[in-house]
Amino acid sequence: MTLRHLEIFVTVCDTMNMTKSAESLYMSQSAVSQAIAELEKFYDVRLFERLSRKLYLTQAGEKLLGYSRHMIRMNADIENEMKSLRESGSIRLGASVTVGATVLPKLVSEFRRTNLYTDVEVFEDNTYHIQKRLLMDKADIGLVEGEITSPDILCIPFMDDELVLICGNCHRFAGLCEINPLELEKENFIIREQGSGTRKTFEDAMKAHQLSWKASWTCNNADTIKAAVIAGLGVSVISRRAVEKEAESGELVIKPVEGIRFFRQFKIAYHKNKYLTGQIKSFIDFVHQFCTNIV
User: Fold this and answer.
1) Angle, nearest 10°, between helix axes 3-15 and 29-43?
2) pTM of whole model > 0.85?
3) What digits encode the pLDDT tens for the residues 101-145?
4) Which domain holds residue 31?
5) Are residues 260 and 277 in the same domain?
6) Which of 26, 64, 183, 203 counts the most CB atoms within 10 A of its CB?
7) CATH number, domain at 119?
8) Are 102 and 126 found together in one domain?
């Protein structure tokens, strides 16, 4: 069994088609099939079920796929480390939307200023998709606000965050000192999409207080939410960090809800089998140091 066998195996898993895999690898289909057969013989397990001319990954295949991705990436990391004579390299960083909008720009800017030879490639999406990228080794680390559900992902909190109820300055809530929780059931909510940490925190708090709510608008970014609330189309619950400017200008109004607080933590996430290069370790340390200075 060689690293090439694992590379072929991963490609077949990604396409679930021997012909397409052979084309992408510039190999013959018979050579790809032979490599898979050699793997199955080596481990004495069946990696794929072949039903009606379609491939289906077995339980053993799923297990091998996780190890294979990390062995391939680890091999690439080793090569990068061995070729590097100074602190250079790259970090593939996944960031969930709120972290990306409120913390990441200044954080990455400061990190690059003191780590000139380290490239940071950023991908922004909700927590669910960042978790998928970590599991598929398409990201080295993630900075997320939502719940990580996979036991294969390790999480380290690095910052506290609070969500707040916001409304437009002409909304009926604007003149109230505090909002009765039952009043929330009468409102149209402009809310983040499924898989978002912001939405999960809001849903959990409402469920804990046995409150129902109605989504009139679902979107995947804070700017759209703020614009819709300013236009009087509904209310929302969003990170306080994301609305500081609008609240200060008076476009949006932050209102406390009687007996309800929406708290969560921002977290550093990475695969438990991930090989942490010197650059990644430096970045993780930098995140902790940087965020202790943020109020």
Assistant:
1) 110
2) no
3) 889 999 999 999 988 888 899 999 999 999 999 999 999 999 999
4) 3-82
5) no
6) 64
7) 3.40.190.10
8) yes
